Structure formats: structure tokens, C-alpha cells
Amino acid sequence: MTLYQELQLNQAGSKQLIRNTQDKKEKARHIAVYLFKILLTLAFCVAFVTVYTKVFGSDNSIVGVVVLLSVMTFRFADFGIHAPHALSSLMVIWGIMTFGPRLANAGNLVTELIVNMVCIFTLMILGCHNVVMFNQSTLLLGYLLLYGYDVSGTQYLQRIAGMAVGGILTGIVFYRNHRHQKYKRTLRHIFEEFDLHSSRTRWQICVTLGVSSVIFFAGLFGLPRAMWAGIAAMSVLVPFHADMKGRIKGRIPGNILGGLTFIVLYLVLPESMYSLIGILGGIGVGLSATYGWQAVFNSWGAMSIAMTFLGVGGAIFYRIFNNAFGAFYALVFLSAVFYRYGLDCRSKEKACFRLKWKRAFSFILISFEILTVKADSYDHSKKFSGRKCQPDSGASKEYRKNINKCHHQNTSS
To answer: Counting C-beta atoms within 10 Å of the first and last residue's C-beta, which end of the chain has fewer, N or C?
Structure first.
């Protein structure tokens, strides 16, 4: 493996490489490359956001974060459709992220709910057709960050300029890296494949309603930083049940531990170093290979910003409370809507939720498509497939297992 290839590995891949290396000198080399990669990434991120802050104002530093997330994500992820059409979708998505959060903040709670529903649903349809890519974790996170760090007046005009530059930069990176990908699916097919009997479509609707409504209720209850509840719900409302369980178990304890360690840092560090807590959190995220530890270190940066207007106690309390509220709300919403209408199955024996024969037959067709899909084949009748949605992934196996369990219980009853 070359140095460049090793630098492209994620945290889990680098740690696995280090763990599997027996030679001490080689292991030391891999550790050095891993640490160098973290420092290099952190330096690049800090420099990028700093430049964005200098050019577009301190109130728009979050724009630099969103652009950076998008550039780093779409170097590898795509939309599962023909590249020029995907680029068009990306530009529409960027327009929504530019104007949607401002419109949501400009009205009352009801208009905010409507705007968020329309914007999030459009993001889900255009950017999350291939569910295995998990593009919602970038697109919705960017939307919610811009919603939570809203600006107006001159600052908003600067934000529009910053988002325009970021959209062009993201588009260049996206098209350069994916222009040679061969997809027969086009933008038109995304709308043709929208079907209420499709698991993907129902999941997209569930995320839209779940995230929008939890922000609405957070605002109704007067909770500060309502976006934290929305981000927590978004992170939990994933298409596969096994992933959801792990994220709930990681997110809530992770934020509690993050709050406790934040108190320690606040008491130990001098006031002049409080601004470094977010950077330390970034280093921690770079060293973390699991979702739970990433939640711990992510909370440091969020609380270091929030303590400037909520105080230390308020920042810690609302960070933990809003995340717990968002995660538990998503779990209840998922149980009441997602499962009730046969979108997925629980792991217990009573987990079939009374699927009717028509729905069971639809699930059989979906599972058959997942088992038989080929990388370069395309069929307009496919409702849950994509070029990179390989049937050998753990998530797909879990999905097929749940569907087959439901079908078995229905046919034997």
C-alpha cells in the first residue's frame, strides 16, 4: 500500500491496518502515517474555515464548515445517477441550503414547519436516492447547521456569496471525481421511482416528517438550539434498523460523557484556551473509529460555542437534553410511523406488524431485486436499488433478513 492509499483510509481502516500489522517497524510506520493524516486533515480544515471566515465574515464561519463537509463527502459519494444530471441536482440542493434556512427562520413556528418539510423532503428526494451512500448525513446536517446559525441583513448577503462559491467548488470536485461513472439512471428516473410502496420512499418521508416535527416541538417548548434535536433525530432515522439501535446507544451516552469531560476541560484550562476546546474535539473525532466516541468529541465544539450565550451549565444541559429528546422522539416516531406501515421489522417474534398480502408481495419483489441487481444493469421497475447498493453489504443482509422473516411469519400464519 502506498502512502497516498494509506492516507485515503478512514479511521476504522487505519486502525485495522495497524492492528493487523505484525512487524514492529511497519506498525510504527502505519501509526506515524495515521497521526500525520489526522494533523494534516485538521490543519486543512482549520485553514479552510479560517479563510472562509476572513472573506465572508465571522457570522458565516459555519458556511465554511458546510462547504468543507460537502467537498470532503462528494469526493467519494455520488447520487447514483448520470453525472451531469447529478450535478444539476446538486445545484438545486445548494440553492435550497442557501435560501431554505433563512425562510424557515423568517416566519412563525407553523411556516417554519412547512418550509422545513418542503426543503428537507426535496433534499431527500434529490440527494438520497441511493440510501447506501448515506448522503442525508451530509445534506441534512448542512441544512440544519445553516438553520441553527441563521443570519440576516448584510451578513446574509455575505452568506449567499459564500454559498455560491461553495456550490461552485463542490460542483467542480463532484464532477471531476464522478464524470466517468456510468449510470443509466437519470434525474427523471428518480421521480418515476417515487412510490409509496417503496421502502426508500417511505424512509425519505419518515425522515422529512420526523426531523421537521422534532424541530417544531423543540421550538414550541422553547428549547434553545432546536437544531441539536433535529440533528439527533436525523442521525437516528436511518434506513436500516440495526444501524438505528447502534446510533441511539452511541449518541446519548456519548453526549453525556462529552458533557462530563467538557466540565473537566473548562475547569482545568485557562480562559484564554477555551477556544481550543473545539480543536481538541476535532482531533478526538479524527482518532475515533466508532460513532459513540465521535459523539463525545463532536459535543465539545458545539458546547464551546453555545456556552458563550447559554453559559457553561446551560450549554451542557441543553446539549444532552436536546440530543436525548431528538433521539427518543425519533425512536417513538419510527415505531409509530415507520414500522406500523410495514417499512421494516422488529427483531422480536411479534415484529411483523400485520403486513397484508399485497405489502408482503411487494417486499418479496424488493428483496429479489436486491439479490439480483448488477452493477451496470438498470430496470425502471426497480424500487430499491442502485449501482453501488451491493447485496453483500451488512446493511443489505440485515434488510433482507428482516423482510424474509416477515414474509415467513405471514405465509405461515
So the answer is: C
